[in-house]
């Protein structure tokens, strides 16, 4: 199983790229949205990948984030949704938009993807709605880690005048609630109402907190 390909972007076509890594060229199929975010040919690129193997073919599909890869895996688990149909949904909505549509039960948003009819869209929402919080938590965690890894993402902290003291790391509960809050804000909820819902939710991980908060935020009736 090839889980990630990292190397030089040799060329980009309408539905795939070729990445040269250690002297081997990998053809990787991507959504339109992912292709649009690719660097110029000759630049370095890294994609998480999923290999689809059938009797008549073997193809790699590429994703910029783990959340996008996980959504592709979940979408293709739905009867009637193949690898390219899953790419169409992700290309139309993006990973965050897919999370939003499925978590909120927005069948019409899923139907907006090319080749996705009303029955398939409804099946996607019905079968994956309970799994959306876990992917949302994965996406929020990935965004937090990316910001932490980028020195420009956070303000510089001045050196203390006194002798440094050991500072305990953030509690895991605090991190989980921060990820849950980030995911809900990305869904379009106001920061205040999302924060209140997360604060009132019970759970030890972001996925459980998101699921509980979504239930609390759902319209009555």
UniProtKB/TrEMBL annotation:
Residues 73-92, 108-127 form the Helix-hairpin-helix DNA-binding motif class domain. It is found in: Cytoplasm. InterPro entries: DNA_helicase_Holl-junc_RuvA_I, Hlx-hairpin-Hlx_DNA-bd_motif, NA-bd_OB-fold, RuvA, RuvA_2-like, RuvA_C, RuvA_C_sf. Keywords: Cytoplasm, DNA damage, DNA recombination, DNA repair, DNA-binding. Residues 1-64 are annotated as: Domain I. GO terms for cellular component: cytoplasm; Holliday junction helicase complex; Holliday junction resolvase complex. GO terms for molecular function: ATP binding; four-way junction DNA binding; four-way junction helicase activity. Pfam families: HHH_5, RuvA_C, RuvA_N. SMART domains: HhH1 (SM00278). Residues 172-221 are annotated as: Domain III. One of its GO terms (biological process) is DNA repair. Its main location: cytoplasm. It comes from the Bacteria. Belongs to the RuvA family. Homotetramer. Forms an RuvA(8)-RuvB(12)-Holliday junction (HJ) complex. HJ DNA is sandwiched between 2 RuvA tetramers; dsDNA enters through RuvA and exits via RuvB. An RuvB hexamer assembles on each DNA strand where it exits the tetramer. Each RuvB hexamer is contacted by two RuvA subunits (via domain III) on 2 adjacent RuvB subunits; this complex drives branch migration. In the full resolvosome a probable DNA-RuvA(4)-RuvB(12)-RuvC(2) complex forms which resolves the HJ. NCBIfam families: ruvA (TIGR00084). The RuvA-RuvB-RuvC complex processes Holliday junction (HJ) DNA during genetic recombination and DNA repair, while the RuvA-RuvB complex plays an important role in the rescue of blocked DNA replication forks via replication fork reversal (RFR). RuvA specifically binds to HJ cruciform DNA, conferring on it an open structure. The RuvB hexamer acts as an ATP-dependent pump, pulling dsDNA into and through the RuvAB complex. HJ branch migration allows RuvC to scan DNA until it finds its consensus sequence, where it cleaves and resolves the cruciform DNA. Has three domains with a flexible linker between the domains II and III and assumes an 'L' shape. Domain III is highly mobile and contacts RuvB. This is Holliday junction branch migration complex subunit RuvA. It comes from Pontivivens ytuae.
